[in-house]
Amino acid sequence: MRVNILAAAGRAGEGRKFVEVFANSDEAKNSPFKVAGLYAAIGDKEKAFEWLEKSYAMRQADLVSIKIDPALDLLRGDERYTDLLRRVNITE
């Protein structure tokens, strides 16, 4: 994923710009789970959870992979992540 590569290369600012452009696109409106993963990849937990909540509100099928999606690794220790797992009915 391009964002991960930019972040790993110390170019987080470019990664953020990429994520923000995508987040404002028409595709993002239908893919909030994907946007959440992108924000998590650049280390923005608040935005990641904001988009995960949008995904939950839309009842997106993508949420079934919340527990195993490596893009969300940064979020796993947060109580909001545990709460979302519970609401999606996925056990830890």
Q: What are the salient characteristics of this protein?
A:
single chain; 92 residues; mainly alpha; 0% strand; globular
Describe this structure in words.
With 92 residues, this protein is mainly α. Helix content is 62%, strand content 0%. It has 6 helices and no strands. Helix 4 (32-41) runs antiparallel to helix 5 (45-57). The longest helix is centred in the middle third of the chain and has 13 residues, at 45-57. The chain is globular, with a radius of gyration of 13 Å. It starts with a helix and ends with a helix. The mean pLDDT is 86.
- Major sheet, described briefly? none
The percentage of residues in β strands lies in: under 5%
Radius of gyration: 13 Å
- Low-pLDDT parts are none
Q: How much helical structure, as a percent, in the residues?
A: 55-70%
Overall pLDDT metric: 86
The geometry reads as globular
Count of alpha and pi helical runs: 6
N-to-C terminal Cα separation, in Å?
26 Å
What is the H-and-E element order?
HHHHHH
Strand segment tally? 0
Task: State the secondary-structure class.
Answer: mainly alpha
